[in-house]
């Protein structure tokens, strides 16, 4: 049987700060429909069937077609966003690389979170159609938010014949720089408006170790076993509140490894995440409150990534890209029912 390529549509999607027009692209294949914005690479909606075949939106997004305007006004929790140049925290918004100290833009107390105040999530990307979907590209200039070197970046969003979404990132730099890119979608497999995922969804993680952090979310050093702690998701269990931690994924470092499986018993929807990254941040959105249109625990973020603060942690897997090298990262989000 021949499989039909992803159907791709594009339309205007409001304006980013500074008046730059943004677009919304719609990808559809294998029962999945994804809408994403060239503003912030934001995944605005992902519609997949439940066990009765009814399609519903399983991510927390801001609704209308004028998406960019709404997301830009919401200085919020990175809903659906493409996060970079360095996802998660860099302690003291500083690091030393090859003997040179660099100061980043601090945007969470003294620390740098998700690439600084004006990260990749607040930029308009250039979009082009590619087989299976759409590729977003932009150049992050040398010194952007304090990061060294000019970085040419792409993020390619594709759907396969079974309706699985893949996001593949590539980057090249003209000077050594930390790089860690992720997507910050919050999932709610019973539907964005269905109420909390906390207490209803079951989660399994492919991680027997995690990186302990201090009260500010900064790693205190190394990894520790999850066995016997509240971080143990090696066997599926109902998601509880209060998670905002990076897990060290088991399995070989080459190719994609299992990161997470999220299951919603009410709708029967299952999300399976695999990634080339060494870590995944589990965040249960406990802080969600008005004016955000979602309450605490309304969605769960599973951010595949390098470890937090790796630029200051020699014991962590390295997250530095050097000239002549190519940063590649890929995460797949597969949907099924049970
Ligand atoms: C997560 C981070 C949380 C919170 C969230 C955005 O990745 O770990 O602490 O900042 O992003 O609201």
Textual characterization of the structure:
This protein is mainly beta and 338 residues long. The chain has a single domain (7-337), classed as Beta-galactosidase, Chain A, domain 5 (Distorted Sandwich), CATH 2.70.98.10. Helices cover 2% and strands 41% of the residues. It contains one helix and 28 strands. The strands form seven sheets. It has a nine-stranded antiparallel sheet, with no helix packed on it. Strand 8 (94-97) and strand 9 form a beta hairpin. The structure holds beta-D-galactopyranose. Residues 77-78, 113, 217, 244, 281, 283, 303 line the site of beta-D-galactopyranose (GAL).
CATH 2nd-level architecture:
Distorted Sandwich
- Relative strand content: 35-45%
Element order, helices and strands?
A: EEEEEHEEEEEEEEEEEEEEEEEEEEEEE
Average of the residue pLDDT scores:
96
The N- to C-terminal Cα distance equals 25 Å
Question: Any idea of the CATH class?
Answer: Mainly Beta
Mass-distribution shape: globular
Q: What's the CATH topology name?
A: Beta-galactosidase, Chain A, domain 5
Give the ligands present. beta-D-galactopyranose
Helix content: under 10%
* Poorly predicted runs: none
Q: Could you give a short account of the major beta sheet?
A: 9 strands, antiparallel
Strand order of the largest sheet: 11-12-13-14-28-24-23-18-21
What structural class is derived from the secondary structure elements? Answer: mainly beta
Query: Rounded to an integer, what's the Rg over CA atoms?
Result: 19 Å
Q: What's the number of domains?
A: 1
Number of H- or I-type helical stretches: 1
Total E-strand runs: 28
